[in-house]
Design brief:
8 strands, alpha/beta, Glyoxy/Ble-like_N, 2,3-Dihydroxybiphenyl 1,2-Dioxygenase, domain 1, globular, 3 helices, Anthracycline_SecMetBiosynth
Length: about 130
Amino acid sequence: MGRLVHFEIHVNDMERAKMFYGEVFGWTFEDWSDYAGMPYFGAMTGDAKELGINGALMQRQGASPEPGQALNGYACTIGVEDYDSTETRILNLGGKLALPKYALPGMAWQGYYIDTEGNTFGIHQPDEHAK
């Protein structure tokens, strides 16, 4: 035990968040609000036969993170096939740059962004030639 099995992204505007994550990463959503007793949408992040986990978008229950404050929680990093085109979609759909693309030498390209709800997340493109 101890393996990460689910994540929750707290959001202010559920429809805006569903559109952002759906358009950027191709996620689909299932309404689980009846189970949760609040707006709560399961996030299907890919094929169940592939490495990864599913999670949910959850209605935020408090104040949004203030810009520039230290991260309070986990930053999820999402694997992508094409870093640059994913970054373009993020920025075109209202996301903001938090930490620019950088090389993890011999392994990948990595960077961090802020979604439309003020949450920090990373993207990661494997590339053994990154430097």
